Amino acid sequence: MEETPRSVGEASTTNFVPAETRPSAKKDAVTMKGCGFANLAWVGVDREELRGRLAMPEYLRLAMRDCIKRKDSTAVPDHLLLLPGGVAADMAPHAPMVVFINPKSGGRHGPVLKQRLQQLMTDEQVFDLTEVKPHEFVRYGLACLETLAAKGDECARECREKMRIMVAGGDGTVGWVLGCLGELHNDGKSHIPPVGVIPLGTGNDLSRSFSWGGSFPFAWRSAMKRTLHRATLGTVSRLDSWKIVVSMPSGEVVDPPYSLKPTTEETALDQALDADKDVPPKAKSYEGVFYNYFSIGMDAQVAYGFHHLRNEKPYLAQGPVTNKLIYSSYSCTQGWFCTPCVSNPSLRGLRNIMKIHIKKANCSEWEEIHVPKSVRSIVILNLYNYGSGRHPWGNLRPKYLEKRGFVEAHCDDGLIEIFGLKQGWHASFVMAEIISAKHIAQAAAIRFELRGGDWKNAFLQMDGEPWKQPMKSDYSTFVEIKRVPFQSLMINGE
Fold first, then answer.
1. Where do the segments described as Disordered lie (predicted)?
2. pLDDT, tens digit, for every residue of 422-472?
3. Is residue 172 within 8 Å of 289, Cβ to Cβ?
4. Taking 80 as the threshold, does the pLDDT of residue 166 lie above it?
5. Cα(3)–Cα(385) distance, rounded to whole angstroms?
6. C-beta neighbour count of 479 within 10 angstroms
7. Angle at 355 between CA 350 and CA 359, to 5 degrees
């Protein structure tokens, strides 16, 4: 397993907290019920004082805005250019910050929340994701500060190095922003901005894992000021991310989610050769990155049907609570709780279509692992939280860990947990934390081989984005998961 670079993205003032010492990474995570934010001792802060800690000088805000609008990091208007020597460094705020808000999240609160954030900060530091995409901010906004810093502007340099980002949205929105910040790693940049969360989604597991809470607070006006204040003070932790490559015989028609993009990698050929399988004459591949989980099986099938139902009848999607009720009801109609016909191949265990190979920590060889007969859904989990704050991996005792060859799970340890769910009743008991899921393995890399036969399609999902994957009986479809060589930086909410 590759060593994780510990110097990438570190600012000189950043204090990193390892996952094993964070309460949010263990069962002791505390969430204040009723308001959705972690239970912190709150010391009131004056609104103008908070604004002074967050707001960048006007000339920098306008320069970033113009560069993003023109899609040119050097397009700083002449009247905003600084005199030789730049501005004194003490003009830089204590914690320069920008906020991305997904107005489609959080029900009807998106527009009013945006207005509230603009009041607390500045208009130019709050970005509506329908108007400014995260990659545009990275390529032109942050690059604008770098351009000015290269000209000797110390204020721009400090703002760039101290920059923090808050994301108001669900887990998918947070992952989108983190993925775009990954461009900075690829370009070899230092001072990667850490990210905090204002939870507006349904599950909000990323938010829960870093102590930002699991729901949009009822008293949201006062909560926004508290949240921004905490974001200026929060320590920074690391988060593993995982690259997934789906390779299939060419000619297959698949409608992948937004997070999966076509790639030219010859991964399918390499995988088939390694596995001593028949090589398809041509192959096509898709790749993406996930931060929370990937799954195959009945849970992904239920999610796929639910997403299509919600798209066909958008009036059903009235908020997180309504979504969960509809989701639960819909799952009962898909045969997960009761298998109406055991002879139906689509309702049998995954071992009929799947083989799993893994690489363990510090090991370069692939090892095939057993797929339990009764398992109808397999989940690959990176975070401690899953399914709106549930803990399916469980809090395992040291003796059990030693017996199975496991280590305590953390989101920055370079390992990912593999577990199985059986019937819907088993999944319900797991999600209620009455029992643990079916533990299968911990791995540093995973390879699934899927082949059809009686099965025509498999259902997969990645961080809540499901899709239907066609399968052939002649050639295998491969799904390979490996750790991204750099880690994302997250602000702790406590």
1. 1-27
2. 877 777 777 777 887 889 999 999 999 988 767 778 899 998 888 988 887
3. no
4. yes
5. 25
6. 25
7. 130
Place of tokens 């798209």: 311
Largest CA distance in the chain: 79
pLDDT digits (tens, 9 = 90+) for 37-56: 444 444 567 888 899 899 99
For residue 459, the cross-strand partners are: 468
* Residue of 424, 430, 214 lying closest to 321 (CA atoms): 214
For the record, the structure tokens of 407 come out as 């280590």
Q: Can you read off the two tokens belonging to residue 264?
A: 């030219």
The predicted pLDDT at position 326 comes to: 52
- CA distances 110 to 19, 50, 101, 236, Å, are 32, 22, 8, 27
Backbone phi and psi for residue 417, each to the nearest 5 degrees, phi listed first: -95, 140
Q: Is 283 left (phi over 0), alpha (psi -120 to 50) or beta?
A: beta
C-alpha to C-alpha distance for 438 and 426, rounded to whole angstroms? 10
- Nearest 5°: the CA angle 223, 131, 493 is 25
350 to each of 74, 194, 361, 386, 422, how far by Cα in Å? 54, 39, 25, 21, 10
- Are 44 and 263 in contact by the 8 Å Cβ rule? The answer is no
Model confidence at 151, pLDDT cuts 50, 70, 90, reads: confident
The model carries a pTM of 0.81
SS3 track for 402-413: HHHCCCCCCCCC
Contact between 451 and 275 (Cβ < 8 Å): no
**Cα dihedral 58, 61, 66, 72 sign:** positive
